[in-house]
Input
Amino acid sequence: MIEDLSSTRLGRWIIDWLAHQRSLGRDYAGAEWILKHLQHFVIARMQAPDLDQASFDLWCDSFRHLSATTRRSRQLTVRKFCLYRQRTEPDCFVPDPLYFVRLCPYRRPVIIEPQQVAQMLVAADNLAPTTNSPLLPVVMRLAVVLLYTAGLRRGELVRLSLDDVEPQTGILRIRASKFHKSRLVPLSPDAGSELRAYLRHRLVPAFDTDPNTPLLCNGARAHRRYTGAGLGQAVKRLFVAANVVDKEGRRPRVHDTRHTFALEALIRWYRAGADIQSNLPRLSMYMGHVSIVSTAHYLHFVPTMRELASDRFEAAFGDVVEEASR
Output
């Protein structure tokens, strides 16, 4: 809790900053975790009276194993906090962003083919249940299905509880996800069937069926929830087992299933002759985006898309182009 911070001067400033930020309407739970971690490192491990350059550098070094994006995000959070403090204490330490971690170049996603997803489902079915994870095969099968057919974020999937699913209608309730948005996600008929098949294993008396327990349970006791990292590693092992790679030999990341979902939706609309522009807001709403601009990040001009767009353009304006070229 925040009260744990009040024992030090640094902690009291953290409480004050969090209260200020939350007054603007954000929960700042992630920032609170980062700053509590910083305070514990500086006070408990470094035995330092306050944050300075040396303790900040060592703190940054303690999570050098994380991705560049995560590391830089933590550094920027601390800088925002320090800038707030500097308004009252001009001499307090403020980290220089010039020395922050540099972001890696954009990595093109690997678009997963339907046949590769089928291979992943076979690999999931072939997993052996363990004492600590008796539902491992069916858990991983459902995880693949929901990531691929519903375009869920990894964190959204692991946070789903039994109360968030309606098996008869095939609807998922996503609560306060990214951008603090909640939404309803209707599943396809096949994905709904997969959900009901999973629940026949999940709802047996050996497992806790309390509505607040996780949908994807990790352990003999159903209240144990997968972490995002834990589920991510399990899906990556399925990528390896199913030998999922693109033509360049690159293996996908878990988030690439979300890119694949968005692109497959667009391809289906092209093939059905649907109005793409009027459907994009629906896709944006389904994926939980603030605007179509965010959705556009997931729409890649792959060869299949290029051919479909070219065919549609030819059907609509081919005669005009032919006439003009004469």
Observations:
- The radius of gyration is 24 Å.
- The chain is about 55% helix and 5% strand.
- Residues 303-325 form the longest helix (23 residues).
